[in-house]
Amino acid sequence: MAHPAACLFDLDGLLLDTEPLHAQAWQMAAQHFGCPLSSAQLMALRGRRRLDCTKTVRTWILENGGEDPGSDQLLAVRQPVAEALLIHAQPTRGAKQLVDTCGALGIPIALATSSSRQAVALKAAPHPWLEQIRTRVHGDDPELGAGKPAPDVFLLAARRLGVDPGACWAFEDSPAGAHSAMAAGCRVFVVPPAQMDSAELAAAYPPGIHLLNHLGEVELS
User: Fold this and answer.
1) In the 3-class helix/strand/coil scheme, how is 9-24 assigned residue by residue?
2) Which of 10, 17, 72, 164 is catalytic?
3) Could you tell me which of 135, 104, 118, 193 has the C-alpha nearest to residue 8?
4) Mean of pLDDT over the chain
5) What predicted TM-score, i.e. pTM, was given to this entire model?
């Protein structure tokens, strides 16, 4: 197949192995307010913006019989845990190789992430290879409308690169991100969480995605 017009990358769980760390931080914060989270609830948070996750966790705390801690109090518990963990996140298998290959082939690339600009800077600091991805859409981007699973983040990333989103390859790991990229019209490649079985994958992800075991399987040349 011909090269894509551009490659659009998620960050958390896709290029960097951060999702278990995010899950740990959300779990600790929710438990602090008396609401342990199930694996299904943690999966539902994956790929979404921090404030969207905060609203969801507050709802779960209320449904569990607790008092709403408010966003500020919930994040006051979560953020120090997350920041201490995320600086240790490692690249996923094949991530650096794929980004380097895009650069070598002259394929435009962009980051399409739910993470804030500050959070991306924190996580990316130990990984100079991520500096190749200069075009970025963050979760707190002033031009961004709705977060994932809405298509806005991928549409905005494609627009900033000056390419048709339908000619882009989007790379994701989360169900929310896969739905977002599919709704934007991209060709969607997904590296799903290893613990998901075939029935869970079929239920969580949109039809038409291309499943990968890791990013090293992507062939561009």
Assistant:
1) ECCECCCECCHHHHHH
2) 10
3) 135
4) 95
5) 0.86
Residue 2 above 80 pLDDT?
Answer: no
Name the one residue in this structure whose structure tokens are 């200069």. 134
Encode burial over 174-183: b for 16+ CB neighbours within 10 A, e otherwise.
bbbbbbbbbb
Label residue 196 by pLDDT band (50, 70, 90). Answer: confident
- From first CA to last CA, the distance across the chain in angstroms is 10
To the query of whether residue 17 is one of the catalytic residues in this protein, the response is no
Whether residue 37 contacts residue 30, with contact meaning beta carbons closer than 8 Å, is answered with yes
* Residue of 12, 52, 152, 197 marked active site: 12
Helix axes 152-161, 175-183, angle to 10 degrees: 60
Residue 91 has pLDDT above 80, yes or no: yes
Q: Respond yes or no: is residue 12 known to be catalytic.
A: yes
CA nearest 139: which of 127, 121, 163? 121
HSE (side-chain half, CA atoms, 13 Å) at 188:
26
DSSP state of 91: B
pLDDT tens, residue by residue, 156-177: 999 999 999 999 999 999 999 9
What is the percentage of the chain residues whose pLDDT exceeds 70?
A: 99
In 3-state terms the chain splits into helix, strand, coil percentages (rounded to 5) of 50, 10, 40
Amino acid making up residue 59: T
